[in-house]
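Render this sequence as a predicted structure.
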Amino acid sequence: MHPEHRKYYLVPITSTIGIKTMIEDFDCGNENINKFLKEKSLGEKALDELVTFILIDGQKRCIAGFFSSTTGSMEFAEKQENDDFEKSEETFINLAYFAIDKRYQRRGLGRSLMVEFFRLSLTIAFYTKISMIYLESVDESVNFYKKLGYKLQDERKSPEKYHEYNNDTTNMDFPMLISIPVLLDNGYLPYNSNFADKGVNFS
């Protein structure tokens, strides 16, 4: 999972002893994401609306990264041959926050954590009508998500397009998504241990 071969543990934020002290030490380089983790992630509203998992460095006992997710739905309109639009509603997993501490960036840890999130999402998709993962990326993370297979919801509104007209994209969000079929096509698999073996007695 990582080049240093040290142990990392992915656990729910609410199950960790001493989490408040660990949170204070986290810095991913993005002020808004840091603020969420430090000031809001353990609040009643966040706990009601989001599920947050933290990646703990077992050696240093600190947070190497985290993600927060929830579910949602969105209406899509697809243009037909007769120029009419066919509307459909898609249910998705919303990756609300995803970050790696600056001390652990550029080590492949972000990709590894995302792969775990893909596996989690695929497992959920087998039991529900989830059809995609949706997120809103900050400017500097768009290319990272693209390398993992995500696409901009509207390619005409990429950071590069805005930069062509000298627009500041520092505080802009860029909607991106990846579908469940694409994840499967790319070779990602769910957690198969979640499925009962044939012949299990449920009585």
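Summary. The chain has seven helices and seven strands. The first strand starts at residue 8 and ends at 12.
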